[in-house]
Amino acid sequence: AGVETVKRAVQLDVASRFQESLVCYQEGIDLLLQVVKATTDEAKKRRYRQKISELTFLSDGKYHKQIRIEENATGFGYEKLFQEYVTEIVSEVWVEDPYIRHVHQASRYLLYNFLRFCEMLVKGPCKVKTIHLLTSYDEGSGRSQQMSALEDIKESLSNYGVTLNIDFSSSIHDREIRFNNGWMIKIGRGLDYFKKPQGRFSIGYCDFDLRPCHETTVDVFHTKYTKKT
């Protein structure tokens, strides 16, 4: 499987389909690493390590793609936006957003948006085991509601074998999502780029692909290391 993935990566690279080739390179590296661990033949290990070194060199550069979501645009649900990057090898996710709160704020449903994002991960092709959330505390009386909702999400995720680690920061400003396959996505509005639905029984209330969006910019990066040190 590793060899076939590498061949596919090279074909995509030659075709200048760099985004897809980077995904294949990363998956090929991970598959070959698994082979190295299971191989007792030292000669084979050396050959595999050499190939891994070559692939790492090819995939080591940074990749940047920018997506502009226009005002009132539709078709940008989480599955559509993230599907290219949430591959089978993804097992750990980092979400940094200072505003995962305000369940009943007039224009935002960020806790529900975060829940929807988690649902996307659970039903996706990836095997996510850990989600790290860094956000800020809600102010005033909303804090207890925020904590209760996050604990409910945490408990629900545990039923699917997913651990949710929650941390808070009073100085966080950046909004970004990182996957342990090397992809990092920065959305100008964070997860809150959807407009408020017209009503509880209006089209787009449940299906985010049909929900109109606020204007925002999505920047997609690929780096060798995802987790910040």
TrEMBL record:
Its BP terms in the Gene Ontology are: midbody abscission
The MIT domain, residue ranges: 1-65
**Could you name the domain of life of the organism this protein comes from?**
Eukaryota
Gene Ontology terms: cellular component: midbody
* Xref: CDD domains: MIT_C (cd02685)
Q: Which PANTHER family match?
A: MIT DOMAIN-CONTAINING PROTEIN 1 (PTHR21222:SF1)
Provide the protein name.
MITD1 protein
Provenance organism: Origma solitaria
